[in-house]
Write a structure and sequence with these properties.
- The chain is an all-beta fold.
- Helices cover about 0% and strands about 60% of the residues.
- The protein has strands spanning about 5, 10-15, 20-25, 30-40, 45-50, 60, 70, 80-85, 90-100, 105-110, 115-120.
- The protein starts with a strand and ends with a strand.
- The relative contact order is 0.33.
Length: about 120
C-alpha cells in the first residue's frame, strides 16, 4: 500500500521557520511528482509546491516563492518543505501528495497532513 507520512508541523511565531518531511513508501506505479498542498480552516485546499520525480524544476504557488523550498533526499523517498519567514496566513494543515501513472491511469495519493500554526 502507498503510504505518505508527513511530519514536522508545529506552532511557531510569525517570522519563524519550519521544515516539513514526507516519507513515501509502497509505490507500485511511476511517480510523476511529489509535493505539498495545504488547507486552512474554512478554505479550499491549495497547491503549495511540487517537485518532478525524474528531474526538472520545482513548482511553487506565487505566494510561497522565495519563502518555501521543496527538495528531496538522495534516496528519493522523502520530500521536504523548508518554510521560512512564516506568516499568519500560512496556518493550515499541510498535506503531502504524490501523483503518478499506473499503466495508463493517472493516480494520486494523499498523506494525512501535518498542522502548522503561526501566531503573532
Amino acid at each position: 500500500d502507498v503510504q505518505l507520512q508527513a511530519s514536522g508541523g508545529g506552532s511557531v511565531q510569525a517570522g519563524a521557520s519550519l521544515r516539513l518531511s514526507c516519507a513515501a513508501s509502497g509505490f507500485t506505479f511511476a511517480i510523476v511528482t511529489m509535493g505539498w498542498f495545504r488547507q486552512a480552516p474554512g478554505k479550499e485546499r491549495e497547491f503549495v509546491a511540487d517537485i518532478p520525480w525524474n528531474g526538472g524544476s520545482a513548482g511553487y504557488t506565487d505566494a510561497m516563492k522565495g519563502r518555501f523550498t521543496i527538495s528531496r533526499d538522495n534516496a528519493g523517498d522523502t520530500v521536504f518543505l523548508q518554510m521560512n519567514n512564516l506568516k499568519l496566513e500560512d496556518t493550515a494543515v499541510y498535506l503531502c501528495n504524490v501523483a503518478g501513472i499506473s499503466g495508463r491511469t493517472p493516480v494520486q495519493y494523499w498523506g494525512k497532513g501535518t498542522l502548522v500554526t503561526v501566531s503573532s
